């Protein structure tokens, strides 16, 4: 964890600078989802949405400016705070028409990992947009709802909303002068990797994906875990068989969209001793997506943080191609 802390200290220690008046505008979402073969669950009709971009601070030692972005979610829930998407845009100094990425955080949702990764990308001239997933951070104010819960159907709905939110985020990013609209990518770690794999399969604008510590074939992969037996037995008592669980979860499983992911430039990074996401999940995704580049680190899920520099160097190299 020491190497990860170094990145965070650099981020936190940089001085703050007052920003100019917020930028506001309207984005025209013009994709033809039916023609592009976007899965039905994730289709959006042509529409327009407003956004606000506010300068937060300059990381002067890193040469990066950070902005707060907000726009309405295409999904309306009963929790008002969750209906606004919050994101942070990390912009390299003098950036112009560079590969750019949307970044999705890990399960704890503090954005510590997401911000550190976005800072790394921006320091290497790749603009990065950290998107808060549904019911994370300011999207959870006044609500006890979480992205994932024991209510599988609700969790699937929340992930679906996050994917649709990311589709709008990519529509916004594609029009930024700092970004090359032909080289847009998704970077996700752990839970962000699982959601990011679905985003890559659903969004035609995404040309590359870096999926860290995730995988696919989730129900089958987790069912093979030594501790899964009692859990599956308990679910069976209430009528939730493995077959039923797969039917519920497959719509938000990256492996479901393996054929679409084959058309993207994928980089997969996994921990060989992962004790959270079974390594079998990454092997399934790797095989299903045509065996793209796959990097293994000999660590547990948390221990993989010790290899953050190595992983992020691989990500930058992949996105810069």
Structural commentary:
The chain has one domain: Rossmann fold (3-Layer(aba) Sandwich), CATH 3.40.50. Strands 1-2-3-4-6-5-7-8-9-10 form a ten-stranded mixed sheet, with helices on both faces. Residues 1-18 have low confidence and may be disordered. Strand 7, helix 5 and strand 8 (206-212) form a beta-alpha-beta unit. Helix 1 packs across helix 3 (112-123) and helix 4 packs across helix 5. With 321 residues, it is of the alpha/beta class. 35% of the residues lie in helices and 24% in strands. It has helices at residues 2-13, 33-36, 112-123, 152-174, 191-202, 218-223, 228-237, 242-249, 258-261, 279-288, 308-319, and strands at residues 23-29, 47-59, 64-72, 84-92, 98-104, 128-131, 179-189, 206-212, 265-271, 294-297. The protein starts with a helix and ends with a helix. The protein contains eleven helices and ten strands. The chain is globular, with a radius of gyration of 19 Å.
End-to-end separation: 29 Å
Q: How many runs of DSSP E, i.e. beta strands?
A: 10
* Strand order, sheet with most strands: 1-2-3-4-6-5-7-8-9-10
Global geometry: globular
**CATH top level assignment:** Alpha Beta
Low-confidence stretches: 1-18
Query: Which CATH-level-2 architecture?
Result: 3-Layer(aba) Sandwich
User: Can you write the helix and strand succession as a string?
Assistant: HEHEEEEHEHEHEHHHHEHEH
